[in-house]
Amino acid sequence: GQQVQQSPASLVLQEGENAELQCNFSSTATRLQWFYQHPGGRLVSLFYNPSGTKHTGRLTSTTVTNERRSSLHISSSQTTDSGTYFCAIDLQGTGSKLSFGKGAKLTVSP
Amino acid sequence: EAGVTQSPRYAVLQEGQAVSFWCDPISGHDTLYWYQQPRDQGPQLLVYFRDEAVIDNSQLPSDRFSAVRPKGTNSTLKIQSAKQGDTATYLCASSRQGAKGNTLYFGEGSRLIVV
Questions:
Q1: Is the pLDDT of residue A1 over 60?
Q2: Which residues of B touch A86 (CB under 8 A)?
């Protein structure tokens, strides 16, 4: 079965609104990471966040490992935030074998 | 620092044809990964190398897919006798073992359409 489940699958916002993306996973040994994929383009690592809360700019990631969930919060969204957000877990605990969710497609309108 | 470079960016094949994708990782990165990303799906690991050695190729369809990294730097992923189900973007990524979180750096991908 799917080891990483993301919700919602898609989200449409007006610029300035906040977004909350959820990730649920099947393993407690996760080394969870969040990635962003430009429309039709490159995947970029946003956070390595195995537990706790991390911030960068307008992005906040919170992982609660024993509840097998993580969230990505985007505050004051901008049109440039549009794209697909993936969470991924490390299946082997080595940092090398990542299992990705299906992604959450975010569209921010001006 | 140059990023991960992939070529070609696009390929369109008839079923049964072959194609090779090439990847140049970030200099100094010992680990190289090939992922397959079908449309509207997350990436799925096909194979990864540490230096020139294959560490895990359990998800690589071995009858038609092959991957090499002979000098522990560049890598080639080859698909022989392509099928329509191979239509996807093929992503290469690299990382440096021991780096915090083992951050993966991805290339822009090679988009394959098999008709």
A1: no
A2: 42-43
